[in-house]
Amino acid sequence: MLALTSEEQALLAGEAGVGVRKAAEIVVALGQIYGARCLVPVVSVQVAGVSYRNLGEAGLQFLSEWAEHGARVRVPTTLNPAGIDLDAWQELGFSSGFARQQEAVIEAYRRLGILATCTCTPYLVGNVPAPGDHVAWAESSAVSYANSVLGARTNREGGPGALAAAIIGRTAAYGLHLDENRRATLRVDVRCRVKTQADFGALGTLVGKAARNRVPYFTGLDEACSSEALKALGAAMAASGAVALYHVAGATPEARTPGILADGYDTLVIDDLGPAYAALNQDVRQIDLVWIGCPHAGLSEIAEVVRLLGGRHTRAALWITTARAMRAQAVAEGLVAAVEACGGRVVADMCVVVAPMYELGYRTLATPSAKGASYVPSHAGLQVRYGSLEACIESAVTGIWPIEFGV
Ligand code: F3S
Fold first, then answer.
1. Per-residue model confidence as pLDDT tens digits over 169-200
2. E strands, 236-278, where?
3. Which of 400, 405, 406, 402 is nearest to 288 (CA)?
4. CATH superfamily, region 281-402
5. How confident is the model over 318-341, as pLDDT tens digits?
6. 315: nearest Cα among 198, 381, 401, 389
7. Rounded CA gap, 125 and 123, in Å?
8. Does an H or E element contain 166, and which?
9. Distance 221 CA to ligand 1 centre (A)
10. Separation of alpha carbons 327 and 212, rounded Å
């Protein structure tokens, strides 16, 4: 039975306006469906459903009406990637028709009081919840990172649910907001070498498929695995399954909690990443576009691309997608100039998976992102090569996928 405070009852009764009442109705309905006993305040929200390609006219109208009804967010709220770089769309080749529609969506979100951050890594640009903080985030890879690496608490929110939580500053306390649901139900013993970011993505692809929405607990991984590796692992599990929380022995904050493995947990042994590489690779050699930055790249990833390019000019198009604020940092460090000197681009705000890529004429893409490789064929209509960052940069330079690199 969901118990509401007097303040929450007032929001539900419409005392703060129609827009707020609508948001309270959504949060309360979700709480009732999932058996929550109360609502909890959230310290931040991350909203998905930003690309006009996914939202369409109906979604844009829904947002505009909510804003017209006086709804405004009460907590810091950031946006998922859009379908274009909001500044450089023309140089990238996107049409003005799509750009206008995308700008209208961003404007509708601005009227709701939301920062047009347009990134799936809000935790790299200032939206960093503390361990134990309740948040309502929607983008699946960000949800996984917030829960697993930062130790914050969020369910995998849908777009309207996250927005509603932002408008009333609360979410329903069920699922991963509760201690008992954060215990691991699947122990994963890793018995093969997992070294590169692509290896972590391949591992995540295999485990996500097997785990579905269970909570994995990894043993056998390097305790010093980097935040970039964990970002790739979580994104892949969220794409091939619906994993929203995982623990890595020695590496993630809740892994050391006594009794973190739930009674009756299952065990999965991974001793070969080959099946994931096979599943994520299509039989193409010529590469039109190399995509780095899924999830959006941090400064160290951009710097690593510059190092691997070593001043060589690219034959294929090379895009590194990142948050606009991160791009500004990369400009200050001279990294954007270095990428551009080689013919590449550091692209802000957007994600290839939700972009109208059909407008640009690319047919093949290489990426070190397992999430990107699993979504691009069906969502962006391009054939894909998946492998290490080194292999991807070589293919950017030569325009050919380097078989000699293996994967
Ligand atoms: Fe981010 Fe798009 Fe990848 S939202 S995680 S860049 S598929």
1. 999 999 999 999 999 999 999 999 999 999 99
2. 247-248, 261-270
3. 400
4. Aconitase, domain 3 (3.30.499.10)
5. 999 999 999 999 999 999 999 999
6. 401
7. 6
8. helix 159-168
9. 24
10. 34
Residue whose CB lies within 8 A of the most ligand 1 atoms, among 120, 125, 291, for a mutation test: 120
Query: CATH 3.30.499.10 region(s) of the chain?
Result: 6-177, 281-402
Return contacts of 105-108, CB within 8 angstroms, 24+ apart.
Answer: 105/50, 105/51, 105/52, 105/55, 105/59, 105/60, 105/63, 106/50, 106/79, 106/82, 108/60, 108/63, 108/64, 108/67
Quick one: which of 168, 153, 248, 241 has its CA closest to 205?
A: 241
Nearest CA to ligand 1 atom 3: 294
Q: Report pTM.
A: 0.97
**Which positions ≥6 away from 199 have C-beta within 8 Å?**
193, 273, 388
Residues forming a β-bridge with 47: 79
Q: What is the CA(179)–ligand 1 centre distance, in A?
A: 28
Class in CATH terms, 6-177: alpha beta
Cis, bond preceding 295 (omega within 30 deg of 0): yes
